[in-house]
Amino acid sequence: MEPLLAYENRKESRTPKELALLNDNEDVIQMEGLIMRERILENGNKELCYPLKYREAFFADHGKYDVCIGLWTRAMEMAMLCDDSITKDLERFVNVFGEMARKARNPSLQYMERFLSLNHRTCDGNTLFHLAAWYETQIYDDFAGRLRRVCYLSCVETVRFIIDSGGLVNAVNNETNTPLHLATSYRPSPDGLRVLREVLEALLNGGAHADMVNKNRKTAMDVAETDEARSIQIYLEHIASSVRDTDDVIANIPNSPNDPEHNDIQKAFCYLKRGMEESF
């Protein structure tokens, strides 16, 4: 069996002497057991999934998020080979990202990019992006109740990290709703308006198309639950459009680096752009 990223690229011990070297490291012994189990049972066996999920939960609980994500990804690969639903797994997955974001503990891009490339979806067709932006995503108390104390969805930190990892911001689910559609369906409390604004800002800055329609021919603006969501979206789109227009002006200023007037004009437009960006 070839080394796998999920198992930290470890190779299975081949001799009693190699096994004896693992004696004082519980984590390595457990990883060795997972490798042996997969070699014996082979892909597509449902008995592979539970031990993987158990260990990833353990690593998440102890803050070892890269190992957690690697094992979780492998468990979902096994589940898909067995035609098992992974809806709850994805929901738990985004919960963990919410916890990580609030601890400023981002996983390595290598793990995240690999996970996103698999295009895992719930039974409703929701991607990790949809779940991070949606207030109705369930929160599971898998880790001694700590998730519910620290994780609140939608989660702007998770949305931003998925964008940085190359997630598809305009992915559609079975209802052809984008993450932006789900985000604007939030009816926030007064305290939740800031979160809604930041999530919409992250999505629009990340390339979300506000004009995309779902199967009912409705845009994110059409399905917005509150006037606040509509006004925030209009405002952010206006600012983003103004910034793009200013970029075009700056790009088209004639290149005359020795002309003081040219430098003053360019500085003025750059200052204007910075002011608009800060107004977000």
Task: Give a structural overview.
With 280 residues, this protein is mainly alpha-helical. It is built from 14 helices and no strands. Helix 13 runs antiparallel to helix 14 (260-278). The longest helix is centred in the C-terminal third of the chain and has 26 residues, at 227-252. The radius of gyration is 23 Å and the shape is elongated. It starts with 15 loop residues before the first helix and ends with a helix. InterPro entries: Ankyrin_rpt (IPR002110), Ankyrin_rpt-contain_sf (IPR036770). This is Ankyrin repeat protein. Keywords: ANK repeat, Repeat. ANK repeats lie at residues 175-215.
Largest sheet: none
Number-wise, the strands total: 0
As a percent range, the share of helical residues equals 55-70%
Strand content is under 5%
How many helices?
14
Order of helices and strands: HHHHHHHHHHHHHH
In terms of structural class, how would the helical and strand content be classed?
A: mainly alpha
Weakly predicted, low-confidence segments: 142-151, 264-273
User: How far do the termini sit from each other?
Assistant: 51 Å
Which value, in Å, is the CA radius of gyration? 23 Å
Q: What's the shape? A: elongated
Mean pLDDT: 75
ANK repeats: 175-215
Protein name: Ankyrin repeat protein
Organism: Pocillopora meandrina
Keywords: ANK repeat, Repeat
